[in-house]
């Protein structure tokens, strides 16, 4: 029994890597239609309040949609590594009478090795973790559990940051009502 438990725990990080962030046409997108009380004009006023003070740029501000670019600092930590990363993304809030739709997309993440921002979908953090890796000296060595844990930690930090943003938006936009269409 003890052996079975330790075997299960050994494969837990690998199983977690199988989790994927939500994608539409191979692009990471968090989106939901949320039914709430209120007319479109009232929901628009709430959407304008949802623009964070840290927003880098308001992209669109029309009577039925508000969009902005924002960013968050992420702390990614494992047993062996601690990294601070910057995650940038776009938020779009569209409103109609009795409902709104949020979309969080266009993710960019800082990669220290490249010294810049890259689309999250192309980031090394989102690529499958190979079992072995060729190092600059030409040696082929297995990648350890630490590398797999770091990749999992990146995904979890991104998921938490986006979930926090969604909760913030829902709190400002109002309590959801029944999902009747």
UniProtKB/TrEMBL annotation:
Signal peptide stretch: 1-18
Keywords: Signal
Superkingdom classification of source: Bacteria
Official protein name in the record: DUF4468 domain-containing protein
Organism encoding this protein: Pontibacter burrus
